[in-house]
Amino acid sequence: MIEIRDVHKSFGAVPVLKGITLRIEHGEVVCLIGASGSGKSTLLRCINALESYDSGEITLLDQRVEQRSRHINQLRTQVGMVFQRFNLFPHRTALENVMEGPVHVKREPREQARREAIELLHKVGLGEKLDAYPHQLSGGQQQRVAIARSLAMKPKAILFDEPTSALDPELVGEVLSVMRTLAREGMTMLVVTHEMGFAREVADRVCFLHAGLIIEEGSAQQVLCSPREARTREFLRHVLTNRVEAPHAPNGATGAVA
């Protein structure tokens, strides 16, 4: 599905990815964890060709990812991305934001795109907000619109780049609930997150990145509850010490490891 082989990336003289190798299978949920600056977001941006990489190889659906490839826009329709910031068009309603890609990129008939966008907004719990503009929505609602917008392209996989990091704690749970539903439905997901409770509950695998390398990879239970590497244990202790849990977060939405 997604294959990353010995990928290196530097910004100027600063190496950010130092040889990442990872494979995500169809239907898998893989969470990337690690401190800020460890290379997680850069890796996602390389997968979606928002950043070029210096060496190695990334393939999506058996096609090589290269920024200058004539196939890159078609590949991007197959792999959605949800960002930290919601990146909604401020002058368009929730419904219009979700319709935008199918109408203007995939050239779907407008009525079909509208019908499917309405269904998706109901799916993410925003059926009553079709005509609301982004400034009329909470951060959690805006992020759910962004997820619906990604789903509207009918992707084979979705990349999530810390989708709850810009939200107030009380809004985190509503976004994670939508992501749990996608995981149960079999959506292939690569998720950069600091939500350890979510990772433990949903991820098939967890990868811990440090200084541009994956230094530990395994099941969520193994990495989060019985980490082998000292650096992983140190990171998780830091999360436990500093994470302030939202008092009403459902199902451990913002909890760390036990």
UniProtKB/TrEMBL annotation:
InterPro entries according to UniProt: AAA+_ATPase, ABC_ATPase_HisP-typ, ABC_transporter-like_ATP-bd, ABC_transporter-like_CS, MetN_ABC_transporter-like, P-loop_NTPase
Single GO molecular function: ATP hydrolysis activity
Subcellular location: Cell membrane
Pfam families: ABC_tran
A single Gene Ontology CC term: plasma membrane
Domain spans labelled ABC transporter: 2-236
Membrane topology annotation: Peripheral membrane protein
Keywords assigned: ATP-binding, Cell inner membrane, Cell membrane, Membrane, Nucleotide-binding, Transport
PROSITE patterns registered for this protein in UniProt: ABC_TRANSPORTER_1, ABC_TRANSPORTER_2
Entry similarity comment: Belongs to the ABC transporter superfamily.
This protein's name: Amino acid ABC transporter ATP-binding protein
